[in-house]
Write a structure and sequence with these properties.
Radius of gyration: 13 Å
Shape: globular
Number of helices: 0
Structural class: mainly beta
């Protein structure tokens, strides 16, 4: 059974940075794509960033140039570096391993002065 555990959320001022981590267990991490989604209050969950086993990435237009997804296969961990944060980035952020339909519990990111 695949388990995903996110960490690193919190409260940050506009223009600040946060790094989210998602540790995976229960499978061979390196061969599967990973993704970060977010869900703001009253809105649908949306894809933020995606990385495949070859480290190819894609991003939502709203975060291009500000967020970076990366993975460390030795640590079974995927990261989301978030810079130049805006109030509209406020949401619960979830990591996912699409091949298994697995989701983490989510971590709250709040961008506010």
């Amino acid at each position: 059974q695949v388990q995903l555990v996110e960490s690193g959320g919190g409260l940050v001022q506009p223009g600040g940075s946060l790094r989210l981590s998602c540790a995976a267990s229960g499978t061979i991490f390196s061969i599967y794509a990973m993704g970060w989604y977010r869900q703001a209050p009253g809105k649908q969950r949306e894809l933020v960033a995606y990385i495949n086993s070859d480290h190819n990435t894609r991003y939502a237009d709203s975060v291009k140039g500000r967020f970076t997804i990366s993975r460390d296969n030795a640590k079974n961990t995927v990261y989301l570096q978030m810079n130049s944060l805006k109030p509209e980035d406020t949401a619960v952020y979830y990591c996912t391993m699409p091949a298994f339909g697995s989701w983490g519990q989510g971590t709250q990111v709040t961008v506010s002065s």
